[in-house]
Amino acid sequence: MNNKKLARTSILLLISILFIATMACKQAGEIVPDAEATQRAMPTVTPTQDIQEAEDAKFKEGENVVFIGKGYLIPFYAKPGDTLVLSHAARNDSGVVLGVALFEGETWYEIDSVAGTGWITEDFLEETE
């Protein structure tokens, strides 16, 4: 009789564990393939305003500039107004202005440097001597 009680208890315990596992899976959310999960996790940036040409820019295309700032690294962005940093340049490195744009009232410059090509704001640039 003791074996029957042990068998019932074991079966009841097994059913309880399976029930709890089933409930946990249902509450965990949907299961998606890796590629779809990566796509969902990729942040998207949608500008609130169109990028415009800057007419009164401090620096002109083809002009050499030096990177300045409080920190050692100067952030480069893929496009004006972006929030994801594409690359970093070191303070006091130099670059060449490739383009100028106005985004939400702020002047952005496309710069070619040893860090690559990217967009940065006027606050991080200074004329070369």
CATH class identity of the largest domain: Mainly Beta
Largest sheet: 5 strands, antiparallel
Outline the low-pLDDT stretches. none
Main structural class: alpha+beta
Strand order, sheet with most strands: 6-5-4-1-7
Query: What is the terminal separation in angstroms?
Result: 97 Å
**CATH fold node name of the largest domain:** SH3 type barrels
The gross shape turns out to be rod-shaped
CATH architecture of the largest domain: Roll
Oligomeric composition of the shown chains: single chain
DSSP helical segment count: 2
Helix content: 25-40%
Approximately how much beta-strand content do the residues carry?
25-35%
Name the average pLDDT: 83
- Helix/strand order: HHEEEEEEE
Number of strands: 7
Radius of gyration, CA atoms, in whole angstroms? 28 Å
The figure for the number of domains is 2
